[in-house]
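User: For a benchmark we're assembling, each entry needs the component sequences followed by a predicted structure for the full assembly. Here are entry 17's components. Please fill in the structure.
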Amino acid sequence: MTQKKDYVILGDCLEILSDLPESSADLVYMDPPFFTQKKQSLVAKNGDSTFSFEDKWFGQSEYISYMKQRLDLCSRVLKETGSLFLHCDKNASHVLRLVCEEIFGRRNFRSEIVWTYKRWSNSAKSLLPNHQTILYFTRSNKFTFNRQLVDYAPTTNIDQILQNRAKDSRNKAVYARNGDGSLVAAGDKQGVPLGDVWEIPFLNPKAKERVGYPTQKPILLLERIIKLASNKGDLVLDPFCGSGTTLVAAKLLGRGYLGIDQSPDAVALSEDRLRNSVKTSSNLLKKGSASYNSSDHRLNAVLSTVGFTPIQRNKGLDALLKNKVDGKYVFVRLQKEQEAVQDGVNLMVKAMESKGDCEGVYIVFEQGNGIFDTKTPENVRLIFSPAVKINEMFC
Ligand SMILES: C[S@@+](CC[C@H](N)C(=O)[O-])C[C@H]1O[C@@H](n2cnc3c(N)ncnc32)[C@H](O)[C@@H]1O
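Assistant: Structure for entry 17:
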């Protein structure tokens, strides 16, 4: 049989997977029924029809053997360098992990990814479920893995970002120093390696990409998985494709795709979405959650369009701009309430002393506070916040 690419196939994935050639897929993502013991249904976006699929079982052993049969076939279809991501939740993640360990081997377990999101609902006698689990296994220890970097946590000490680390004589991590005792500046650190807790918004009822399929996943989540474990031109397989989210993400990223679903509605929806792919963007991901957690909300107001990393636990500096200017870091300080501008500038200059060749921007919020007498070194500039300008014009 020739390798199928760019298809959506109607049928039970048990039969279709048995028909596929061995070692043909680079990545399998599967989002099967979760053992919720419910019929999952939702009204379609046009309001005229209802989409649904069954998730009711005689018991856990029936579910486990159903999943084991299909996971076995996925392992057969995966290339030696391939990966499997199995989406599940608290109903069966504990047993599915054991099933996967039996099939792929414990040593090929890579991560338990927690997909977390904010959802508001009444949860009377339990904790509000705010996450799902994605089990990540590979066929062997030689697997495709594209390292991804994310922004630093807001609590990261700025010196950890800017300075290199070394071990001292007692094997303790210390900042690396040159022969003359000065700190060794780090090269261009782009961020920290992606962790196993992913905060990606749940599709809200008005999201553009929502088609009304029950348990539809966000394209952004699938994009992250596909980028991590496959390359352009690779084949991505989803044996429970539902509304086709994986296939749309694979297509947008230049991968081949193959989707299977036993529901004719799901296959029709997937084909439709592949013809006309719509993706919802996320401000949370674009700006980073750090920008929402900033300790000083004025930072967001003044710098949101520039892109910045808030600096915590530093007396003189509030933020570091994401882009360097002429190869130099640019630090920002906001004038604090009742702070004389000269005092603020002095604190800023002191904090910048240990940061190498850099620039500073001090943002003035109250003009009366000694602004005209302020002395600043060449690399620190004063600018006025819009509030000062408005006061100047109208008050
Ligand atoms: C959780 S949904 C997938 C949702 C999908 N990830 C999305 O974003 O729209 C599970 C899907 O598995 C399908 N399904 C259930 N059992 C199946 C089987 N044996 N073979 C193929 N598809 C199956 C259901 O019809 C349903 O569409």
